[in-house]
Amino acid sequence: MTAERTGADDVDRTLALLWRARGGAAEPTRGRRPTLTIERIVAAAIAVADADGLAAASMHRVAKELGAGTMTLYTYVPGKAELVDLMVDDVLVERRLPGPGEPRPADWRAQVALYAERTREAYRTHSWLCEVSRVRPPLGPGQLAGQEYLLSIMDDLGLPPRQAVAAANGIGTYVDANAALGAENTRLERSTGQSTEAWWHQRSSFWENYFVVDAHPAMNRIWLGGGFDESAKGQGEAAFEFGLNRMLDGIQAQVG
């Protein structure tokens, strides 16, 4: 019973931190006047993760960046897991998706494209996002703004509630998965100093020495037909656009 209560307390405190702009989380009040804020802590943690990866954004490292003691950070944020939740949601807020009553593209497909573009940009800018599971997301303003935006698009199309949820979740999952792949590619290029194109070029001997045409006839035909002429980056972009557009075609057919 005690463990369950402690868990609930931790969740409530994290939610209060996520929604601090509404007055849900107060800064420490005991002792001297606080020299830090939650905003400064989260911003410093994001800067560390952007530069050196998520693992580097430890409580000790963030405290050092702020010129504070590690234990001081714990008076603001319970621990690393909660700090990561705050980092993720702050990055999602950066997408600045149009809220209720705010201007947005007139065409619904353009509205989805805006969501995809800004989400992928968030992953490109903060490549450590690909290291964070989105299965149990932080229930903060950034997460809910994304869900509200996609649901509002599907609702305006006239989809029944369950189909609206399925369509919005399908789009969100597809965009997040592809954005994570792009972020992983960015992270690999930074950590290895080698571009993806250079990586493939380094393995060009594979096609001469190990590729068996008879075992891969479809691949060979498509290769000879120019199917792989684009760069790896170009193929990735084409795959993303193709998949998203076919998904939207299906939704359009459902409402049409």
What would you call the structural class? mainly alpha
Low-confidence blocks of residues: 1-6
Counted by DSSP, the helix tally is 12
Largest sheet: none
Gyration radius over CA: 22 Å
Helix percentage range: 55-70%
Give the rounded overall mean pLDDT: 90
| N-to-C order of helices and strands | HHHHHHHHHHHH
What would the principal axes of the Cα set say about the shape? Answer: flat
Percentage beta strand: under 5%
Account of the 3D structure:
The protein is mainly α and 256 residues long. Helices cover 66% and strands 0% of the residues. Helix 2 packs across helix 3 (59-66) and helix 6 (108-125) packs antiparallel against helix 7. The longest helix has 32 residues, at 161-192. Residues 1-6 have low confidence and may be disordered.
Give the topology.
Layout: H1 2-18, H2 38-52, H3 59-66, H4 70-73, H5 80-93, H6 108-125, H7 141-156, H8 161-192, H9 196-202, H10 205-209, H11 217-224, H12 232-255
Helix pairs in contact: 2-3, 2-5, 5-7, 6-7, 6-8, 7-8, 8-12
